[in-house]
């Protein structure tokens, strides 16, 4: 539906009878309803202020000429008045969407008397006003109208926010009159929370602050370039070294080090175990060399942890040039795991400082396209670099490690100056004395985030998580279904992806050909990742849409198990089909963050989710074994069974959150409005335990 909120100034000490003598006020009512249709024709643009003035010729061209009677009205972006008039009544016009459009319902809210009356456009407005509103004679002045679009709750998307903010979360861009802080008591409560927490952006918190949709869209685009793009580049530098080993082994690295498939699996297991240990949510009070998502929460991912991690893993990856035996390989993999662990939850938490919950999935989808981008670009690079075998007496894989280490080292150096702590801390010698955002832009950034999720200000971004806080998050049993999905969801495509180039070599392809033949899978993987994440956001659905990743792989695994002796090109096509699956990691990470409902829970739960994903990676690294090569028939049967299990897990997780929301809703509705308000202001419940919070699913 379309909702219009109009602030109407009603002159004092006026007589009702005079209103019958003119139809100006009724005309304004009609104008607002027509303006709603104008907006509907213009793709439901949100948060427009409407002013009744003669339309300009330029504006007339922008409105559908099939409705000439609407051209009398101009839609413009008017600044709000700096002060309130003596009497303010809020008029809400609700217009259902659809071809058969029933009369809009109009509600007048007298803020001083705290009363409301409703009617529809089919009622005589003059008579309605005469009966319902007294002390009115001269025409009311409509000085600002805010139009927004409210979406129906369909799609199974769940809530994922405080109940007070359910409506405002449906607004795409721009401020609205009705938001979580509209109630002065609730605004005062959260202001006190932010002050006690030392929230770094509290000086920009303003419940009465207003902005329009165009400003917010422009600001989001600016952040996409400055924040998301840089996060993507840093992630590329991570995956550059996580996956270059898969290209190196196509250049006879294993036989040159006296290793076989099992030895390689052990090395990868050591790497992942170290990676997992580094991500343990340890409540460390002092800076230690062990990188962790929660150490980053204490020290600041921007100030120390992430830049040092990138520099560290670049040096360690370059050191692989000098390994000569299996023991060296194991040691380097362990150290690289420690250096890389924690990076992903740190950066995801950093992104939540800038983006609303409904904006995050698509940004994370782009973030994870780094996987396929790196694989495509580095497969092309590897095809050339591995031809350098013999130069300087080195093998091709040694040159590969050295050149890629130098590339990521440059990223690590720039990370020290290109990661601001938050939206209000962008000023620096490198980013400029005025920073990235103006004062007004900072107000927009902070207030749009807090109105979307007030809990984002309940903790300072330099505050660590205590042992008590850690234990509390671990006890959040309602988060565990997502952790279990994280363990299992990515096991099926893991072994084929890790061994693809080696499998191609065993089928007779050269090093050059094996690396180039991996590119189609990575390209399709990136496309499907973005498409899946888009549809998840579009339909506000997580569980069902994320499960499509498993349905995609099911047919390909079934075929590869049913046709174990198929020809080379048939097996290649099936492997490409498996590896081009729609990656649901961005959806699940955003799902975990949204269901956390507090900064502390979000910091720990995101790290825990990534840890469980690494557990799954450790499992899949040991599914393809030396005695099962080259076709890995036994391993593929195990992976097919995992796909079937995952489909069930996704549906059970969806059903679990539907059930939990139903239980919460029953308890909430059993409370009187006074009890609900008292609960919001006094409850000690935190995170997903709050009764006014609904899980997304």
Summary of the model, kept short:
With 697 residues, the chain is an alpha+beta fold. 56% of the residues lie in helices and 6% in strands.
Question: Features of this protein?
Answer:
697 residues, alpha+beta, 27 helices, 7 strands, globular, disordered N terminus, transport, Major facilitator superfamily domain-containing protein, transmembrane
Q: Can you count the beta strands?
A: 7
Structural class: alpha+beta
Helices, by number, come to 27
Taking all Cα atoms into account, the compactness measure Rg is 29 Å
Report the end-to-end length measured between terminal Cα atoms. 23 Å
Round the mean pLDDT to the nearest integer and report it: 74
Strand content: 5-15%
Spatial order of the strands forming the largest sheet: 3-2-7-1-4-5-6
Are there runs of 5+ residues with pLDDT below 50, and where?
1-171, 282-292
